[in-house]
């Protein structure tokens, strides 16, 4: 049995210990809550397609019986009412409305706007005026690219975004106090109700307005609770995972000069390969509550009773040598591609995977094109991980820009 560290202090070390302990491992979550972890790719890939297990937290006996209180530090990631925690027809109903707005074609149409956001943020980096040319990329770039994209998609006004970011950080943090958990849950529901009211009174070309229109035409489309938590899912998953992806990729390239050289000499496809390898090697979500068996199930010879919780340790699975080869611990953007599970799998595979890939690819290419000599401003060992069982990244990423600066845009030619 392995006790998981809520501070994430040794994230990949812990993931390695989980793999070494076996394909199915008993783990202890904060507060002494017990769960299971499936640590190998082949078993986890099968589990996420298994109809004998549920995504609905109501099937977790410990919650249903009241043994897990509403102020448990992980409760905000689990006890929600949206497509992530729904099964069967209800899951299809909740997912269908959002799927229509996030098709691959519609996501690709966002490319120019994503590029514009990235370039604008690079123009505004405070490192341009800092004496040593240093800047923390997390708040000034990695957070802002996906935050601006998802807030524009959902119609969240700009003045609301700092508070939204605070609430998301609180939800993903595993060391919150009971008072903070209660306050965050209250404030996030209030903010979302205010957004719904705003877009009901002043509809726009955004997802919130589209969902409200769907609800107006079909009372069975979404309940009020489902609407609130669907918006919460879009806003949280829509930027938290992507900011970590951008940050982890930047960190990986800055600490692997050979891979950085390959990336900087490549094209769009090469940068897409960077993103895929980071998703496997340093997944944004290190762990996530995967399923709750509706009946006793046996995985790799281990029987998990009905009603218990199963954790998906994506960091452990991403470096599974049985799936990714004996050098799975090595960051290599040119490796032969194998399927990873960074976006989950089965019917619940992440709806925003295309958007996350696009945002990260565009942002990384823009960053390293503008600053080809970008360097870490601290030793890699000085980077502090986020205090989370879920999010896998660092609390900051101080870098020195070294060269470059605000882009010099070519002036349009005047007719003569």
What this model shows, in words?
The chain is α+β, with helices and mostly antiparallel strands and 416 residues long. 48% of the residues lie in helices and 9% in strands. It contains 19 helices and eleven strands. The chain has helices at residues 11-21, 41-47, 61-64, 75-78, 88-99, 104-108, 111-123, 137-142, 144-154, 161-172, 178-201, 207-217, 224-237, 240-254, 257-264, 268-281, 314-318, 321-324, 353-370; strands at residues 2-3, 24-29, 33-38, 53-54, 134-136, 288-293, 297-299, 302-304, 310-312, 375-376, 398-400. The strands form three sheets. It has a six-stranded mixed β-sheet with strand order 1-2-3-9-6-4. Strands 5-11-10 form a three-stranded antiparallel β-sheet. Helix 7 (111-123) crosses helix 9, helix 11 crosses helix 13 and helix 14 packs across helix 16 (268-281). The termini are far apart.
